[in-house]
Amino acid sequence: MTQLSPARKPGDRPASDNGKTLYGGTSSRRITVRDIAAAKERGEKWPMLTAYDAMTASVFDEAGIPVLLVGDSMGNCHLGYESTVPVTMDEITLLSAAVVRGTTRALVVGDLPFGSYQEGPVQALRSATRLVKEAGVGAVKLEGGERSAHQVELLVSSGIPVMAHVGLTPQSVNAFGGYPVQGRGEEAAQQLLRDAKAVQDAGAFAVVLEAVPAELAAEVTRSLHIPTVGIGAGLDCDAQVLVWTDMAGMTAGRVPKFVKKYLEMRQLLGDAAKAFAEEVVAGDFPATAHTFH
Ligand code: KIV
Fold this sequence. Notes:
- By secondary structure, the chain is of the alpha/beta class.
- About 40% of the residues lie in helices and about 15% in strands.
- The chain contains 11 helices and 8 strands.
- It binds 3-methyl-2-oxobutanoic acid.
- Pfam families: Pantoate_transf.
């Protein structure tokens, strides 16, 4: 594997933030792609979460999460589909608008769903324009490296910031036959590097690396001047993203190895629902405090 010169050394601290760090900064205006570029220059790491509704988005915005992705993971996590494949432009547009309404500071990135950009750059521009105009997102995301570079180029030259997504691209689940780790072996690693470079050269402002060996993700991160956003791609990416329902322990059943649960929300919510139900059945709710006379 080619060794490329590092843009920064592991452990380098961000330069003085002057209140402008993406996470923990004091500026209250909405974050833009220029702030993202400045964070890469400072060597500053940042978090990204998915969000699919205004209320949850407002919680993450108040917590200072600088970038919220209205991911097509809404298919599995919010809409009850088996994968991201069935998600439509109407669904992404509706939920992206809700996330924009629920936030004041976060950069909201709307995902382009399967079938909304694969035909070519013109279709991609039509879909991305809809997300920007109708939902008010500040950027869009699409999957693919070299294969999507022409789409990225036209969107960026039309004034729409693009986050790319390489490695495991869940919209290709039927071609992959599941969700396998990508970039293993010399040939696959070189292809991943070419994919990441292709979207950077096409003008993407950041690139998601999903399910990629940590060593390869570190090499990609060193070789790009745009930030890498890791999900199952190790510690050396510039940013980290998790699907919020996974991170909060809301997802039913098995979650991928790369997920860390910061809360057992499914358990807590279920317990609250049972406590309510038991009080209703026992005739204890509503009490006087919850009653009008
Ligand atoms: O749709 C999504 O949530 C994503 C993230 C996993 C990066 O693409």
